[in-house]
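Sample entry (269 residues):
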Amino acid sequence: MKQITSIQNPFIKSLVQLQEKAKSRKQSGTFLIEGKREIELAIKGNYELETILFLPELIAENDLNKLFVIPSAVEVTRIELIEINKEVYQKLAYRDTTEGIIAIAKTKSLQLSDLKLPKNPLILVMESIEKPGNIGAMLRTCDAAKVDAVILANPKTDLYNPNIVRSSVGCLFTNQIASGTTDEVIAFLKQNNINIYGATLQNSNAYHEINYTTPTALIVGTEATGLTQAWRDNATQNIIIPMQGEIDSMNVSVASAILIFEAKRQRGF
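Predicted structure, serialized as tokens:
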């Protein structure tokens, strides 16, 4: 088995670049996954793993095999195992509580045409959300509510940013995700006869007065600027969460959770 014990190793340096730079992830078509639970969810989500790096003090080689006891998941023989030491692990790991295991995985296509939707889908669209923590939190909510798809419109942050992988607690891998420009996403929703409900202050009805039991896309934007005009112009109905305090908006991940679970409530969960 291959062993790497130096942080100056060229391969390790390339992995640091994967952690730090979206350009490196895009060029290589790969990204890093840290932690047993996250790797297990990636396998269940049919992500292809290329390499597993492990710290033997925290996880034994025999325990690695347990990760792959998942029907139709991956062929273990194709995954390279590399033993690393503590110095290398700490160089690559974002946190200290991830059981000593890091995987290199291939990114997936995020084409809108790849989405497989049911007849009556519930979709969350995020427009130009920049903060990885907010994206990760919304992915967790979408997993909890079993939303049919998540679409990133005009994305400002690389989906495979390690902070999204981490903050989503692996829900990056459990959701069906696509990406496109705002115009492409609007066209896709209209072509599939999906109602568009944009969360915005302008010309809006209270969110709880809307019927979400038909094909529905909930659209949320940035807290600073909200949705672009294109969404307001093309919405089936703009919606708003009534605010009773001094501020006129809330964290986008909180707002999206309120909207999603109102839709799920109407659909009988």
